[in-house]
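tokens incoming
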């Protein structure tokens, strides 16, 4: 009987499963061409790291990822981790929207067993493809009891970064992921995990989000602020789409043009607003440059716009009270 940990690799597609026309082609390839079973089989020695099984959730470029797939993926992760026959999960995923899926899982998986998400910046056919080592390291991390209770981790380029903080900050370099001001959780080297910090924000069973009975998440749109923005676009979103929530990717500390503030104050019926920052780092503080109390808005703390959207979508499954949502943005 093997004493190796039993790890299930759930494949969703991405560049890690991508195929290009030649070994030196690193752009313009097709994502999601190789099955997760083939990916696992292509990693030399992976069978020494863990007892592996694979499942294909989907096989797409992550630019086509959807909240519906987030839901089915998280439900499958919870189902697998409820079994004594599974010790950890690895998710292979495209890098473009990896940070959103990682954070969604961080908030909805209800097990303390390791869940590690990984991908690649180079297609599987490329010279020096980064996918195989990323996958090996992700399996090694998911097999480590050091990750128990740490929430979902992203493993890219030998880094371990908490799902709440990880973000893609380069469009094509292999060294494209980091935790910004929150830093990294640790490293994986020679299949060994070295950790330097634990996430302080709530995740897993500490959150009130139970998606087991949810088929569709509340609609939340993101509006990017820029000089001279046409208010008719914002007006259309608010009046015609009538989203349950809206994230403003504002300037600096989450500020926005006066015209937009006026439009929102006239049309905020039923939509909860979160002020985030298009800077991608730092924090947007409550009642900082903007009186959130009087406006009824929520400051995103250090969540970037795309992650603030994930938390707001889940928050709206349990409440539409801005004060309670503010608490969630301080805690999760
Ligand atoms: N192919 C893109 C994606 O699926 C990029 C990648 O995976 O690196 O997100």
């Amino acid at each position: 009987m093997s004493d190796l940990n039993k790890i299930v690799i759930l494949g969703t597609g991405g560049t890690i499963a991508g195929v290009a026309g030649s070994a030196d082609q690193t752009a313009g390839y097709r994502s999601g061409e190789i099955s997760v079973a083939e990916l696992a089989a292509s990693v030399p020695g992976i069978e020494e790291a863990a007892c592996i099984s694979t499942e294909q959730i989907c096989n797409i470029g992550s630019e086509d990822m959807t909240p519906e797939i987030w839901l089915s993926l998280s439900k499958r992760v919870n189902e697998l981790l409820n079994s004594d026959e599974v010790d950890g999960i690895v998710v292979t995923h495209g890098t473009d929207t990896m940070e959103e899926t990682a954070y969604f899982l961080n908030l909805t998986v209800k097990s303390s067993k390791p869940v590690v998400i990984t991908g690649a910046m180079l297609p599987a056919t490329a010279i020096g493809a980064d996918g195989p080592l990323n996958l090996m390291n992700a399996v090694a991390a998911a097999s480590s009891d050091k990750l128990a209770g740490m929430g979902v981790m992203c493993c890219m380029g030998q880094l371990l970064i908490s799902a709440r903080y990880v973000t893609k900050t380069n469009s094509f370099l292999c060294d494209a992921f980091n935790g910004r001001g929150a830093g990294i959780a640790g490293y994986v080297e020679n299949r060994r995990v070295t950790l330097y910090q634990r996430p302080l924000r709530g995740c897993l069973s500490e959150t009130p989000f139970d998606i087991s009975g949810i088929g569709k998440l509340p609609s939340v749109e993101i509006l990017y602020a820029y000089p001279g923005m046409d208010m008719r676009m914002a007006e259309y979103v608010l009046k015609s789409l009538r989203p349950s929530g809206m994230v403003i990717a504002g300037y600096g500390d989450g500020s926005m043009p006066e015209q937009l503030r006026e439009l929102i104050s006239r049309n905020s019926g039923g939509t909860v607003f979160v002020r985030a920052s298009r800077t991608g780092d730092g924090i947007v503080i409550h009642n900082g440059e903007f009186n959130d109390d009087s406006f009824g808005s929520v400051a995103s703390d250090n969540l970037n716009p795309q992650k603030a959207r994930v938390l707001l979508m889940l928050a709206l499954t349990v409440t539409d009270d801005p004060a309670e949502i503010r608490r969630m943005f301080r805690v999760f």
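note: Residues 6-206 form a domain with the Rossmann fold fold (CATH 3.40.50.1170).
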